[in-house]
Structure formats: structure tokens, C-alpha cells
Amino acid sequence: MAAPVSGMGEAPAERLPVNSTSFQKKTRSKLVSIPGTRPSVQNGQLLVSTGVTSLDYLLGGGLAVGTVLLIEEDRYDSYSRMILKYFLAEGVVCRHELFVATAQDNPDDILQELPAPILDDVAVPKAVEQPRLTGEPQDSLDAMKIAWRYQHLPKVQSALASSSRFGHYYDVSKTMEAEIRQAAKCHRFCLPDHVTPSSTAHRLESYSALLESLQEVIHREGFDLAAPMSKSRNILRVGLHSLGSALWGDDLCCHDKPRHRHALTTFLYGLRALLRSSLSVAVVTLPSHLIQDRALMGSITRLCDNAIALESFKGSERETNPLYKDYHGLLYVRQVPHLNCLASQLPDHKDLAFKLKRKQFSIERLHLPPDLSETVSRVSRGELASACGPSASGTKNLDF
Amino acid sequence: MFTELNSILSSSPDSVTPGEFILVSDRQSDASFLIHHFLSFYLRSRCKVVFLGLVQSFRHYSAVSQRLGVSLTQAKEKGQLVFMEGLKESLSVLIPQADNTESQAMNFLRDPPVGLRSLYEFVRSGAVGSGRAEDGAEEWGPPVLLVDDVSVLLSLGVDAGAVLDFSHYCRAAVCSQMKGNMVMLVRCNGEEEEEEDGEEGAEALLKGLTHQCSLNLHVQGLPTGYCKDIHGQVEVCWKRRQGDGPHTQRNLFQYKVHDKGASFFPRGTSSAVL
Questions:
Q1: pLDDT tens for residues A71-107?
Q2: Domain range enclosing B172
Q3: Choosing a second label site near B150 at 20 to 30 A (CA), which of A222, A377, B50, B195?
Q4: How many domains does chain B have?
Q5: CATH number of the CATH domain containing B245
Q6: Do A277 and B155 lie within an 8 Å CB cutoff?
Q7: Is B83 helix (H, G, I), strand (E, B) or coil?
Q8: What is the ipTM of this complex?
């Protein structure tokens, strides 16, 4: 439901208060529009694209400015790193500023691997349609005779996409050219360059240094909402790689009862405070599979606005399972935010899978196709039956 | 303010029962919509409200309250609402600067084991202000303390015992002394049967607060699984200390949150099903 026009913006004649925070409902008269953003149709939030169009759709149109997206890494950090690179590449193409922080690699390593944008707009995906049998008139195809109860249900559209395009497409096989990349302003934070002598139980020096550095960049470059509105505004995209891993000095991933239990959660609280009061958006990746404490994972998730988890099939026995041969992994939506409104946009389906194609990272609803092959051997049929319940293959054994 | 919830709780803005401690708890769900209900409810009944908004910005609460028909900025200007924006205050403590003029309320971030004494002092001074009748200022009703939410204090390093002490002090000051009300939101993540050491803090806090409260609204997901039309179930549990012994009464409702409110209905009677 679109936000009513009368609800957008505050009392029109007044200036916005100085200490207001993000999620301004920006009316046309007040703010020069920032490139690469658009207002949400649901609640007027300012959205940016994550670089992955299906992820934008899942998050309700895009990532809201002032929020954090938490990505729980897959086992080998391949796809989460890919999404982080998409996010940063989208920032370069939209001419936003970037802030990249890592603990192990140099941030430049990530920046040099950004995928190349497809700028000529050739690959525009169409919505998946049911294949039409040739020669059959439209009416008889639409009017179901046997399964008429299902007449009113919408056709299955497995690829998640919305009608209006927002965001760009990238070619994963090529890296972004140096000229395009250097045109974007990028701030780096590499932990080994910052001294970390000692830490108290609740605040780690590494996280404090990161928070201070981020705040300093926000103040200096004018991303604060309190800064004068007359200047042209831009968005700061913050990418934090592998937060919570041992390389940040945190022992969350190493021990069952970590000593620095609250260091990461305090940092995330400070990050949320910084983002809500500035025009920035953050993507944080976290190796959650190393954290033993599920309760701690729960409080970390609650302190981030959006949260997704990736589980890739690489190295697991599902990689060779013919059921999953079309996909590279599963995607779980752990949390969706409700910002400036009571209701949140819950996803339609909870079973989602992703696959990384050369020109697109697509997230689709996981549905198992009917097992129509005649040549499936008995051995694999047993595997299929045990692997996944709701598949139709089990009944083949009852051949009368 | 949700009218259906008012009829379930038999409360109305015109007559507010004093001395109540309402605990809103949730398990693997999000009960913050109830905090918005109580905020607009108490503002409508002309009580003085002290709101500790620890997890979201003022703009968020203000935007939602506008949809529910209450203006937070106006209430703040008139002095009816004392709002503490936790996120903003915390930045000056987490990132120490040379010339910061921070309020003392979020001091516990500097050294969490110390406890929440400064936060309690802030609450007390905010609530006491209603007693004095200044010239030209309006008289407000008894003070109400709203906390959204208390579990984030655990994430910031405060001990569960310290949080229970804080809530007890606030209850003694606000509910008993000043005959006001108190509403707190506490969030839990795990299953009830699991006994993990890490969860000690949150479960102990939930149990302790449930023991202290007089009305508990417990929000959970549906036991049968995820559904887009029914967002979960609310269990309303009264603890009346009547003369004829302890009398607890429980009711179970399902709810759906939409743009301008939430609708509550008995189990199985959702409009999506019937």
C-alpha cells in the first residue's frame, strides 16, 4: 500500500530540525534527489540498491538508507564476499562514496575484484512465464477442467523480480576497469594499520577504532544529517568484511564462553546510532557458522535491521544431489525491518535458493520439479526419497 | 492505540488503573507494535510519559505514532513526553570526544558492571517533574515509564541482576510512590526448554520480570508455522492480587499487524481462514 501523499514529509513550511535522524520522507520541494536512490513505495523510505536485483526485491525494494544488512557468511566466504562486492560495485556505478574495512586482507584486494558493470543494458531478465503450447487457443488453456480449484492462484514465478528496474547488472567474469573504480572516492580501514594494544572486557580497541574512523569520515565528508542541506548530498556505502572473526581480536568465534561477549553487540549498537544520524548504509558480513552461542547470534541479528544467511552447497553432500543441481546454495531471511511503520514486509516464501550466473545473482523460490525422468536408477531414487520429503519421486516405486 | 486491544484489556484512556507494571515479552518474534500502542494510549489519557527509546530513533516512533493519531513532537514541546533517545546519547559515550556534553543517563556504556543507577536517576527526575504545577504549564496525570527495550541492555554488557534491580527501583518509584504505571519490553530468542549457559541472562531476566509484573503480554509465533496473514499469537496473563488468593487469568489471541494498527482475534477466526 503506497504511503499517502499527505503523510510524506513534516509540516511543509518548517525546516527540518537539526538533530533529526535518517528516514526522512523527502518531498520534492525540499531535497535535491541523490543519484542512485529512490523512495520506497511502501513507506517513503529512501532506498539504495544492493547491486543484486533479487535481493532488492526480498528486502522490499532496496536497502533503506540508515540501516544495516547483516549477511551470515557461507562456509568458504565465497558468496557473501560476492554480495559485498556487488554492493560496492553498485556504489561505484551510482557514484556513491565507499568505506571498506577488513581485518585480514587489504581493502584494496576487495576493491580490485569488483565485477564489471554491464552498461549497455542488454541483459534485462523477463519474468518467468508458463510455456504456451503452440496451436492451443487461449481460453482452453486458461480454464482448468480438472484442477479448477487452482484456477485463481497466480502462476508460479520462481525468479524474484519486480517490474521496475533499479540497480545495475554486473558481469562476474570480468573485473571493473581501473578508470571507473578510481572515479569513486573510497575510504579504507585496514585493521593491521591501526594499533590495538589492550582491550577491556566490553569494548575492544579494534571495534572502537573502527567506529571512530567511521564517524570521522562521516563528519568530514558531510554525510551527517545535521549538515546544511544546500550542498549536494551523497550516500556513503559501508562494507565491513568478516566482523566478529578472530582477526578483529574478538574471541566470539573461538570460545564457547567468550570473554569479549558484548564487544560486537556494543559495536553494532554504535553502528546503528551512527547510521541513523547520517546518509549511509552498511553491509556487514559475519562468519556465523563459527559462533557456537545461538543466543548471542540472536542478539546480533536483532541489532541489525536486515539479516540474511547463506548456505552454499560447496563441499557438502548436497552438491551432487540432483535435486539441487540448479542452485548454488540456500538463502534464509532471518529478519526484515519495520522502519517508520508498524508492519514489516514479510517475504512470501521462506524457502529460497540462490545461484550465481555470469550476469546475475538470482534468488529464487526453491521448488522441486516433478521427477519425470524414466531412466532414474533405483539407487539414486532411494537417495532422493530420503533427502527431501515433498518430492513426487517416491511414488514411482509403487508401480502397479 | 488499538481499539481491540483496549477491549481485551478492559482499559480505556479515560480511566487508567494506577500502579500497574505491564510486561510485554516476546520469543522469536517482534512485540514492539505493542509498545507503540501503549505509547499512544498513555499520551491520549494525558499522563506524563517518560520514554526510554533505546533501540530506534525518535523519527521512527514519531512516524508510527502519527499514524496512530498522536504527535510526539507536540507532546515533547508541551512537556508531556520526556524522551530519551538511546542511540544518540550512546554515541557520545562510545566515541569519546574532547568537548562532549553528554547526559549522564547512558553512562553505563562506559563501564557496564557498574549498573544502571544513572539511568534510574534520569527516570526519576523525568517522572517527578509532573508533581510541580508551573505557571502556564498543564497538569498531567500520573507518570508512566515505557522502556523499549530492556534486553538491549543485556547486549550492551549489563548484568541481568542489574537490570532486575533497575526495574525494581523504577517500580518502587513510579508505580508505588507516584501511583503511575510502567511498561517494559523484553525479548527472548531461544526455545523455552533449552538450558544454555549463554541464555542465562535473557531467560533469568524474563522470569524475574514476569514475577514482578502485574500484567504480561507474551507474543510468540504461531506454533504451527509461518503464515503471512496471521503474524503470531498473544497470550494475555493477569495476575490479580485479590483478597481471595492469587488469581491468574490467561487468554490467547492471534493477531495481525497492519499499517494503522493491529487486529486481534480468537484462535482460528482470522479473516484469512474464514
A1: 999 989 899 999 999 999 999 998 899 999 998 878 8
A2: 3-193+201-266
A3: B195
A4: 1
A5: 3.40.50.300
A6: no
A7: strand
A8: 0.91
